[in-house]
Write a structure and sequence with these properties.
Two copies of one chain form a homodimer. By secondary structure, chain A is α/β, with parallel strands linked by helices. Chain A has two domains: about 240 residues, 3-Layer(aba) Sandwich (Aspartate Aminotransferase, domain 2); about 100 residues, Aspartate Aminotransferase, domain 1. Helices cover about 40% and strands about 15% of the residues of chain A. Chain A has twelve helices and 14 strands. A seven-stranded mixed sheet of chain A has the order 2-10-9-8-5-3-4. In chain A, a hairpin with an 8-residue loop joins strand 13 and strand 14. Chain A is globular, with a radius of gyration of 21 Å. Chain A starts with a strand and ends with a helix. Chains A and B meet through helix 1, helix 3 and helix 9 of A and helix 1, helix 3 and helix 8 of B.
């Protein structure tokens, strides 16, 4: 049987070079390598230098590793907000970030809009707001914040730290990192790696804030508190034994992406998204769940298939495509399509053709 | 150049079957697998059933996954102690567990003895002690608690929860799990896997305690609080995306160990330890750092080489053996030898011979 192309939005299809890098890693003894060795420091630095080059991350930013993006939700709240955080919620994952703030004992507030909708982020929040949590790409519903909306938050909220969850969009978005304070992601989405590593990028305002909370005797976490991650990162090290293999692999995939060029990756992502959204709209029966084209994600495309979800899903599976189910309440009515760098233009063209063929067979 | 045998006490030499299992994992699409799938639940269950069979873990115990044993230090303190914990400290790692309790805001107390020594654990602690932290095998110095000492703690402290750090000793020790409440380890030591997964085993007393703290509005953590790990584990699931590949690999390695038999693994471990300790004692120049044979580890053997450390280390390296350096202050005077299931009897016999040859050449 031909291997199916995994289009679930993560864990998703591996970046096409990963298997080769795993073989090399075993040859080089990476899985037995001490995280206190010079070689490991080199692998750490490769990720840092690579991300700076690929995403244009300023030198003012530290790049640290956690076990997942979920962990970064928790650590960012613990280390950066003594009392208050505000969350823009439009789906299950932005809501989970808010819930973790509540569980952490913060006075967390939120602006919630209907699933699939955008929001005005340019309103000024109360001045006491210490941290503003933005989900750039809501994986559950396929809404992505336009960059202009995201970059506008700072102007109205000059003092709050702005933290961006970019789990299922990077490396695609071209953020202006100076308009925010922290951006994070996990590797099993756009970077096409096995799950088990989160990457947390934060600027010096974050470091200062967490050090200040620490000085004031606030609880900011333990071995993975931001100041610990930061001080080890200065030496290209981690506070405890990390997923060494994943860090090595991430460095290699970033190198491959630099070879291809971020411009080409972004153009291809947009081309593939356009091809698929067009196929959805032409199909008659499937429609993009996000009504406003401005707020539609280019990396996680969600189609509302209503009662025909199982039918179209089977049709696509028979043709070698494995879309993701809907999330939560939409499990049986939505289809989610990951559009990550590993998914090729040819695959997306064939996918669009398959959707067209399905629609055609239903019109007859 | 011949590949060297890694004898550092973790990340250490991979279990000899791991590379084959990684290949199979890629063939089967494990790295792209959703952690909400039936297949993943099967991999989770394979670890649980396998550990119960291999280590004789009672059915009353839950088995959950974290990113590392360091994380379990933090989570166990957060979820199981509202105010107080007591720590038996005889090296860097048992001390770090204590420090994490302090950072977590607990009134943590400790019994500290000199590095390399054992302690009387059978004294009764103040009744208010909620949690007693025991490090079965102190990786920094090569001290292991005799099982009788470990099992005796409960008799004098019937109410406190007894948590055992068995990071660098399992699967070797034959614990009586009914005499303690929780045992944990990470996979890059005795199980011979790449780093990036912690395994936390805890009984129903732990679940009840954490639920009670939660009901009383205490902070017990967020997505990885014990009740969250427990309720997902009931479904063979995890609260957030875990290191799926590592869970799959752990299940496979446990299967291999079951094939070999835990009795054979334990006998071999003891044989190899005896061979090496004898070689150290006969060498004249190297001596076991732990003076009392009763308290010497069978899985992490530490030799005090004094000023000759670099010399013997080079000698062994030239013969294909890569021992670990000493830990912390002992970096340049100790050698540490991991004696894990993947290290064969033949390797240990050759290692002992090499130490003998080095000693001989120095006597001339």
């Amino acid at each position: 049987m031909k291997k199916k192309i995994c289009l679930a939005p993560g864990p998703s299809e591996l970046y096409f070079t990963v298997e080769g890098h795993v073989k090399a890693a075993f040859r080089e003894g990476v899985p037995s390598l001490s995280h206190r060795s010079r070689l490991f420091e080199g692998y750490y630095r490769a990720v840092v230098d690579g991300l700076r080059a690929l995403l244009n991350v300023p030198s003012d930013y530290t790049i640290a590793f956690t076990s997942s993006a979920t962990e970064i939700w928790e650590r960012s709240i613990q280390s950066l907000a003594a009392e208050t955080s505000h969350h823009y919620i439009n789906g299950a994952f932005s809501k989970r970030y808010f819930e973790i703030a509540k569980l952490s004992g913060k006075r967390a507030t939120h602006t919630t809009v209907q699933d699939g909708s955008g929001f005005k982020t340019t309103l000024a929040l109360p001045e006491e707001t210490e941290l503003i949590a933005l989900t750039h790409n809501e994986t559950s519903t396929g809404v992505a914040m336009p960059l202009a909306a995201l970059h506008d938050v700072r102007a109205k909220n000059p003092t709050a730290l702005i933290i961006v969850d970019a789990v299922s969009s990077l490396p695609y978005p071209n953020f202006d990192y100076r308009q925010v304070d922290s951006v994070f992601f996990s590797v099993q989405k756009g970077f096409g790696l096995p799950a088990g590593l989160g990457v947390w990028m934060f600027n010096s305002r974050c470091v200062e804030k967490s050090l200040m909370l620490q000085e004031h005797g606030k609880f900011i976490g333990t071995y993975h508190a931001l100041p610990a991650l930061w001080s080890y990162a200065e030496k290209n090290q981690t506070p405890s034994t990390p997923n060494v293999l994943a860090i090595y692999l991430l460095g290699k995939v970033i190198e491959d992406m630099l070879q291809k060029g971020i411009h080409a990756i972004r153009k291809e992502t947009e081309y593939k998204a356009a091809v698929l959204y067009q196929a959805l709209e032409k199909s008659g029966a499937l429609k993009p769940f996000v009504a406003d084209p401005e707020w539609r994600s280019s990396t996680v495309l969600v189609a509302d298939a209503g009662e025909r979800q199982a039918d179209i899903s089977t049709f696509l599976l028979e043709r070698g495509f494995e879309p993701g189910e809907g999330y939560g309440a939409y499990k049986k009515s939505h289809l989610r399509f990951a559009n990550f760098p590993t998914h090729s233009k040819e695959q997306y063209e064939c996918l669009a053709d398959a959707i067209g063929a399905w629609a055609e067979s239903h019109r007859r």
